[in-house]
């Protein structure tokens, strides 16, 4: 069964003006119920314009030729529009900026109240939504959303959407701006939301590793047109196509390409860390280099990367950068404009510890730590 059916959809911003911009050009797209579809493409390719059509935030300009049907409801039908917007939950980029109520519970309850539900049903949905996104009701319900951390605010914003129990969830860059731990938690949450609340998910993302891990299908846009549509493994295997779209392949695929340059051939369809891990351990085991670990062992442990025959350190990039592994008390002089990489196990004090110890021949030097930023 099709959850979404889009036919002949085009959209032009500032039509018939000097600033005319064609954002979508004859889009035809069907989304199967129960699937997780990733929309990818460079900035300006039309992704956001497309998803805003799904719940009527933008309406088709040519209603005679174009059509958008979501669960048998037309996005052009004014009478069905309100119900349509309850069916399609939209989580925009940085949704925490849209919080407005004085407590978490009131913010989450806003949508269900507009559905004219009873007070008991509203309360039940608020509690359920908070449970699903991992926010304890007793701890967070009465707090101001503006006093929460960035990750907690985002969870509140997502809870406000899923409290309406939409059958389709549209996520626009849901992990943008989150730290690695928050990113990992939210990606896991997306799968939970698909399993428990919204069986059909449309994900907009620029992170191809996230797409490789989560999506059943990838739809790529360029200049408002669909230029690729298929399983992630098949789309990313076409390296030239991905490059033409203006994207990069997932990390695992880049490793495969780098190894191929060194004469080690692996399957071009490898796109996740798990697939890369299995391929490399099989390779090492077949060469007698390494006994294949049990599946529960940690990916890419220190022993795995000790074999210099397969992983040498002669890249041009390493030759251009001075990498200094030192203790916090060691002083060093860095040439003007040099980029210094500081490594520490915990990563929490590297900027503070080294700021006072780093000087340049002609002024302050720039140093880059594992977490990014300048020293």
Secondary-structure map with pairings?
Elements (H helix, E strand, L loop, with lengths): L1 E12 L7 E12 L3 E5 L6 H7 L13 E4 L2 E2 L6 H7 E4 L12 H11 L4 H14 L4 H4 L9 H13 L5 E5 L7 H17 L3 E5 L3 H7 L2 E6 L2 E6 L1 H6 L1 H7 L5 H11 L11 H14 L29 H5 L1 E3 L7 E3 L4 E4 L7 H6 L2 E3 L5 E4 L6
Parallel strand pairs: 3-8, 3-9, 6-7, 7-8, 11-13, 12-14, 13-15
Antiparallel strand pairs: 1-2, 1-4, 4-5, 9-10
Helix pairs in contact: 3-4, 3-6, 4-6
Short overview:
The chain has 375 residues and is an alpha/beta fold. 34% of the residues lie in helices and 21% in strands. It contains 14 helices and 15 strands.
Task: Tell me the structural class.
Answer: alpha/beta
Number of strands: 15
Mean pLDDT: 83
Return residue spans where pLDDT drops below 50 for at least 5 consecutive residues. Answer: 298-302, 304-328, 342-375
H/E element order? EEEHEEHEHHHHEHEHEEHHHHHEEEHEE
Output the strand order for the largest sheet. 6-7-8-3-9-10
Shape: globular
Beta strand %: 15-25%
What is the first-to-last residue Cα distance?
Answer: 55 Å
- Give the proportion of residues in helices: 25-40%
Major sheet description? 6 strands, mixed
Based on CA atoms alone, the radius of gyration comes out at 25 Å
The number of helical runs is: 14
